[in-house]
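Whether sequence alone determines local backbone shape is best considered at the level of individual chains. The sequence in question and its structure tokens are set out directly beneath this paragraph.

===
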Amino acid sequence: MHHYIPFIKWSHIFLDGAQLDRQDIEIVEGDIAFPKGTMPHTENRNAYGKAAKWANGIIPYQIDRFSTYSAGQINTITASMRKLEQQTNNCIKFVQRTSQPTWIEAFV
């Protein structure tokens, strides 16, 4: 059985379609951010490499430490992650990043 995970462009939730105005990052495919100058070549994209998959479906996340998210917005982000966990029958689990070398990040 295959499960499909819908991906949300979080910046649209809080910016109501406003343009992202950050000079320190590059955006790829509308919702993937890389620090400026570090974007990998497409043939080495992690989405296609088995070595890049998170172990046991545990996905570390970090909410942009430079953001001005309100507590309510942070709750919306984490509630969305919990909903994705439920929709995949807990095949994935989001955990707050500590020292993991790879993670996803919510930012504005």
